[in-house]
Write a structure and sequence with these properties.
By secondary structure, this protein is an all-alpha fold. The chain is built from 6 helices and no strands.
Length: 158
């Protein structure tokens, strides 16, 4: 990208282009982990900043925010590894494998947040077996919906 193009598109587009170029240089199996970690870091950071602004400042609140950032980033990386492993196994199944990968990845991302929250932070979201089923169902549905959107995108761009 030359200087004139960066002026037309803006600095954010340039940063995003640099990030995507860097991701393209990574080994294919690690990209989902990096993206998962980055996505959950960004989501947690945005939530944490809002909470830090709305709640009276305290050392405990700042510490909880930092712990949440570490847990979410780690959980995103683990969920990315689960996606990469399941994708390599399920890819030969074609569209069924894609849908199953989406369901597994969705469950992995939802549980990657809820399980550490339950056991490390004392969250009571997963207290009953029904809540585990609901979390897995929500994650699987979200994953399949994202897979369908991906299929739609690929069909429109090809």
């Amino acid at each position: 990208m030359n200087l004139n193009e960066s002026r037309k598109t803006g600095w954010l587009a340039g940063v995003i282009e640099q990030i995507l170029t860097s991701l393209a240089r990574l080994p294919q199996w690690i990209v989902p982990s990096v993206l998962g970690a980055a996505l959950l870091f960004i989501i947690t950071a945005m939530r944490g900043v809002v909470l830090l602004i709305t709640v009276p400042p305290s050392p405990q609140g700042a510490f909880a925010f930092l712990v949440a950032l570490v847990v979410a980033t780690s959980a995103g990386a683990v969920a990315g590894v689960i996606y990469a492993a399941s994708r390599s196994v399920l890819r030969p199944l074609g569209p069924v494998g894609d849908a199953l990968t989406g369901a597994l990845a969705g469950c992995a991302y939802v549980l990657a947040i809820l399980v550490p929250a339950k056991f490390l932070l004392g969250d009571d979201t997963l207290d009953t077996s029904e809540s585990w089923i609901i979390a897995c169902g929500f994650g699987a549905g979200f994953g399949v919906a994202c897979t369908i959107l991906y299929w739609y995108y690929r069909r429109r761009t090809s």
